[in-house]
Amino acid sequence: MKDFNFKIPQNVQFGMGSLKKLPEILKENNSNHVFLISDRVLESIGVVKKIQDIIEAAGIKLTTYLEVIPNPTIDVVDEAADLYKKCEATSIVALGGGSPLDVAKAVGVLAKFGGEITDYEGLNKVPGPIVPIIAIPTTAGTGSEVTASSVITDESRNYKFSIVSYETLPKYAILDPELIMTSPASIAASCGVDALIHAIEAYLSKQASPFSDAMAEKAMELIGKNLRKFVKDRTDKEAACGMMAGSNFAGISFAWARLGNVHAMSHPVSAFYHVPHGVANSVLLPTVMEFNAITDKGRYEKIYNYIVEKNKETKNFKSEMLIEELKKLNSDLGIPKSLSDLGVKEESIEDMAKDAMKSGNVLANPRETTLEDMIELYRKAM
């Protein structure tokens, strides 16, 4: 067994109705002025007001920023950071999916250390603890509340870059499954498969450890058992709890094991064509899993048994069975089959492949990957 390390630096509160713990957490953190980061969609369905009411009822001052967009840009980060500094808030509440949480981490960095957000691009460029963040995810998918990265789009480069530092981890996370029970079926599906991919890629990563494996396996068990049920009926409390916990465990697993080619490839797709992150990942998954199959040492069968509809041991397993099951899962959930279905054009493939190769996730992918391999993977996914 190779050497490995991990730490659990956060306070995570899980459970139906756990949102009521927010005032207690804010007071514990001496937060007398909260900066709430979210988006207009969550405002339109009343979730933002619910959080605002809880904070204000506790007698805590509040400033709100709601202009976060999918695949958030540097301009969004700069605008939010400027407002944070002007209002003199003392902590951040990040409400939403991966985009508000990514923006919150970036704002926390700029508010504490200044400069341009691109100054912190890459690994371990954040010099110390950032502004305290309380993360409240409203999707079961990103795991961003327990991951050490923030992904931001640089429109000048047509490129999604990552800030990777354990200093960006939110100080607290509130996982209230009630918040994901109003998600549209399409969001529940793409976010759910994204969470599954986090666990799968961490499980197959060259950097996997017994700790990350434990988190990934439990995540796959919970997501595999509940994903179809939750997409079919978002009012199913047991399925909602399973998806919320599974997404969280998947996030922990890849925070310590990294990801692979699926995520390396999906970021350029989102940057070039504004495709939602979870959808891009879901479409790319079967192609990448087929590419990686020659490196399998028994883990494909374990993954298959977690996600197959009738969860039972399979005789005479072959890797092709997992590939077909992943295609079936996407089909069952209404996810498009190919990149061309998402509007991706052949002429972008080489540029996307070059950007994908810049991702550190390629180094963790179980099969060594060249630029030529990456180009071919995109072509197959078309």
Automatic annotation (TrEMBL):
Gene3D superfamilies xrefs: 3.40.50.1970, Dehydroquinate synthase-like - alpha domain
Start and end residues of each Fe-containing alcohol dehydrogenase-like C-terminal domain: 189-382
Domain of life: Bacteria
Family matches, as Pfam families: ADH_Fe_C, Fe-ADH
Enzyme Commission no: 1.1.1.-
GO molecular function, one term: oxidoreductase activity
Positions of the Alcohol dehydrogenase iron-type/glycerol dehydrogenase GldA domain: 9-177
InterPro entries for this protein: ADH_Fe/GldA (IPR001670), ADH_Fe_C (IPR056798), ADH_Fe_CS (IPR018211), Alcohol_dehydrogenase_Fe (IPR039697)
Swiss-Prot/TrEMBL keywords: Oxidoreductase
Protein name per the record: Iron-containing alcohol dehydrogenase
UniProt source species: Candidatus Cetobacterium colombiensis
Highest classification ranks of the organism: Bacteria, Fusobacteriati, Fusobacteriota, Fusobacteriia, Fusobacteriales
